[in-house]
Amino acid sequence: MNGASPRAETPGCVIITGVPAAGKSTASQLVAERYPHAARIDGDALSYMVVSGRAGPVSSPGPEADRQARLCARNICALARNFADEGFVPVVDTVVADRAALDFMLAELSPLPVLFVVLAPPLDVCHRRDAERAPRQRVGIDFGPLRRTMLDELGDAGWWLDNAGLTPDETADAIVRRLGASASTPRGVGS
Fold first, then answer.
1. Per-residue pLDDT of the chain (191 residues; tens, 9 = 90+)
2. Which of 4, 13, 6, 5 is CA-nearest to residue 179?
3. Residue pair 83/13 in contact by the 8 Å Cβ criterion
4. Is the N or the C terminus of the chain less surrounded, counting Cβ atoms within 10 Å?
5. What is the pTM of this model?
6. Of 18, 41, 46, 19, whose CA–CA distance to 31 is shortest?
């Protein structure tokens, strides 16, 4: 590290979002693998740490699901800050459904620079990918309402990447290139 602090070498945090089956898990893993020091933070894994009393946005929508989603986002951001403080690029894989969720995460991550990436292949591609998953991994819902909310509330935020025609490696390479270009931005959601 040549005497530099680990944080100074960290280009920032990457949040990769999108509807289910957009490619978040695969892309986030591959992006993290492209750095000498990186950590992948899986929002689903953190969410499922609640073993008893879990309320999910699909299975149990309402105030309790909202409270647990905020707790999960807070835990994601705390982990991301901790990894960044130790010189690791935090690469977050989670669904950021609306502006309130994004604003909350940006506030929790402040002052860490953030590249916000929305993987946005066409819905038919996401539905096909979901159908091709093993039965226990399928989401099996209409992603249209979530996609509409994301477009309405986040359409001007971050970088929307249609990765339908890209391989997973090409998607990861594009994100890493974008992170390099935006890492000098002191604060924000990339562009």
1. 333 333 344 568 999 999 888 999 999 999 999 999 999 999 999 998 998 888 777 666 788 888 989 999 999 999 999 999 999 999 999 999 999 999 999 999 999 999 999 999 998 888 888 888 888 877 767 778 889 999 999 999 999 999 999 999 999 999 998 877 554 333 344 44
2. 13
3. no
4. N
5. 0.85
6. 41
User: How many CB atoms within 10 Å of residue 108?
Assistant: 17
The one-letter amino acid code at 46 reads L
| Closest listed residue to residue 183, CA positions, set 93, 113, 116, 109 | 113
Residues 6+ apart with CB under 8 A from 91: 13, 14, 16, 28, 31, 32, 38, 39, 40, 41
Tokens 């159908």, residue located: 131
